[in-house]
C-alpha cells in the first residue's frame, strides 16, 4: 500500500475565496484573476475583495483606507514586547510571539471579527518596520497618512518616501501573495481556528507554518542560490551538483502547479519592468531556463516549473528589501488570505479531526 503522506489531493474544505488550478495555471480570487488584480488594483481593494466578497465602491474603499490607517500605529504594549524580545530572535519568531500576545481576554473572542483581520493586517507592517529599525539602532518612523499600505511599509522601513515604481511592484507582489487556497499555512490557521480558538492564535500558528523553507522560507534561499551561482557560466554546473546530491532547487516545483505558476509569470513581468536589462535579471532568467531543463532531465515526469518564490525574491531584491524581510513580507501579504479563510471557517465551523493509520507495535495478546 502507498504511504499516506502530505494529504496530497485531499479536500479539506469548501471555499469561496480562491481557486488554484494547477493543471491550467489559473489563480482566481473570488471570481477575479489574481494577476489582473495585482496590476490594476490597490492592496486595499484586493483585501476588501477577500474579506468582504466584493471589490469596494468609492465609499467602502475610503472607509477601509481610514480604518487601516488608524490601525498602523503601534500600541504601547506591542512596543514594550518588541523591545523585550531577544535580539537574536528572527523576525518570523517575533511576529509569531507578538501576534499571539494580541489575544487578550477582550480580543480572544468567538467568532472572530473582520475588524480584527483589518487591524492585524495594518499592524503587521508596522511591527516589521519597528523591529527592523530597532535592530539597527534606528528610531521608529510613524506611518504617513497620505501613503497607502505598500508605500507605508517601505516608508516605515526606510524613513524615505518610496519610489512609486517600487511601491507599485510591492503592491503587485503583496496581492499575488495574499491567497493561495489550502496551502500549508492557511490549512494550519484554519485547523487552529476550528477549535474555536481566536483569530490571533490562528494567525500565530499560520506564521509558524509559513516560515519553513519548503513554504514561505524559500525566497531568501533563492537569493542565496543566485548569489552562489554568481555568473551565467556557472549556473549549469552548480545546479547539476545540487541535483546529483539529491538536493532541491529553491523556487522550483509545487504541490499543485504542474505547469507554470501564474504568480511567477506575473512577477517576472513586474521584475522586468524594474530591472530589465540588468545583469541580475539576465542571470535570473538564465538560471530559470537552465533549472527547468535540468529538472526535466533529473526528475522526468515530475513537471517541475518556476514557483512564485523565484521571482518574488527577484522583485524584493529589486525594490531593495533586505533578504531577512522576504518571508515576513510574504507573511504580511498572506495575512489577508489567512484571515479571510478564518472568517469563512468560523461561519461553517466543524473541528478538523482527521485520522491516522496506526503502524506501530501491538501489545501481546493472551499473556
Ligand atoms: N528541486 C529538485 N527536485 C524537486 C524539487 C526541486 N525544487 N521539487 C520537487 N522535486 C522532486 C522531489 O525530489 C521528488 O522527486 P522523487 O519523486 O524522485 O523523490 C519529486 O520532485 C516530488 O517532490 P515532492 O517533495 O513529493 O513534492 P511536494 O509536492 O511534496 O513538494 C515543494 C512541493 C514546493 C515543497 C517542492 O517542490 C520543493 O521542495 N520545492 C523547493 C522549495 C520551494 O521552492 N518552496 C516554495 C514553494 S511555493 C510557495 C509556497 O507554497 O509557499
UniProtKB/TrEMBL annotation:
Keywords: Transferase. The keyword Transferase applies. Pathway: Carbohydrate metabolism; tricarboxylic acid cycle. It comes from the Bacteria. The keyword Transferase applies. Signal peptide: none annotated. PANTHER family: CITRATE SYNTHASE, CITRATE SYNTHASE, PEROXISOMAL. Belongs to the citrate synthase family. This is Citrate synthase.
Amino acid at each position: 500500500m502507498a504511504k499516506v503522506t502530505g494529504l496530497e489531493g485531499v479536500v479539506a474544505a469548501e471555499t469561496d475565496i480562491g481557486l488554484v488550478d494547477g493543471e491550467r495555471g489559473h489563480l482566481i480570487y473570488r471570481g477575479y484573476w489574481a494577476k489582473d488584480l495585482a496590476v490594476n488594483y490597490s492592496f486595499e481593494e484586493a483585501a476588501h475583495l477577500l474579506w468582504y466578497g466584493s471589490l469596494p465602491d468609492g465609499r467602502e474603499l475610503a472607509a477601509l483606507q481610514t480604518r487601516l490607517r488608524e490601525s498602523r500605529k503601534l500600541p504601547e504594549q506591542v512596543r514594550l514586547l518588541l523591545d523585550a524580545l531577544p535580539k537574536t530572535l528572527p523576525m518570523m519568531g517575533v511576529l509569531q510571539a507578538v501576534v499571539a500576545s494580541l489575544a487578550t481576554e477582550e480580543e480572544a473572542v468567538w467568532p472572530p471579527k473582520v475588524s480584527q483581520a483589518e487591524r492585524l493586517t495594518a499592524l503587521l507592517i508596522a511591527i516589521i518596520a519597528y523591529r527592523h529599525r530597532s535592530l539597527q539602532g534606528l528610531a521608529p518612523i510613524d506611518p504617513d497618512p497620505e501613503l497607502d499600505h505598500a508605500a507605508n511599509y517601505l516608508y516605515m522601513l526606510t524613513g524615505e518616501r518610496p519610489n512609486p515604481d517600487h511601491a507599485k511592484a510591492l503592491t503587485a507582489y503583496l496581492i499575488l501573495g495574499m491567497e493561495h487556497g489550502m496551502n500549508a499555512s492557511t490549512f494550519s490557521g484554519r485547523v487552529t481556528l476550528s477549535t474555536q480558538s481566536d483569530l490571533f492564535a490562528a494567525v500565530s500558528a499560520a506564521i509558524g507554518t509559513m516560515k519553513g523553507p519548503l513554504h514561505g522560507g524559500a525566497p531568501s534561499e533563492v537569493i542565496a542560490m543566485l548569489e552562489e551561482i554568481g555568473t551565467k557560466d556557472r549556473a549549469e554546473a552548480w545546479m547539476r551538483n545540487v541535483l546529483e546530491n539529491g538536493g532541491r532547487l529553491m523556487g522550483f516545483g509545487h504541490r499543485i502547479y504542474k505547469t507554470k505558476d501564474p504568480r511567477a509569470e506575473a512577477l517576472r513581468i513586474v521584475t522586468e519592468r524594474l530591472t530589465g536589462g540588468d545583469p541580475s535579471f539576465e542571470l535570473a532568467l538564465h538560471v530559470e531556463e537552465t533549472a527547468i531543463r535540468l529538472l526535466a532531465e533529473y526528475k522526468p515526469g515530475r513537471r517541475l516549473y518556476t514557483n512564485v518564490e523565484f521571482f518574488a525574491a527577484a522583485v524584493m531584491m529589486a525594490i531593495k528589501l533586505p533578504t531577512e524581510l522576504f518571508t515576513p513580507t510574504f507573511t504580511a501579504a498572506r495575512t489577508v488570505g489567512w484571515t479571510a479563510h478564518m472568517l469563512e471557517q468560523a461561519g461553517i465551523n466543524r473541528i478538523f479531526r482527521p485520522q491516522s493509520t496506526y503502524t506501530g507495535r501491538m501489545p501481546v495478546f493472551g499473556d
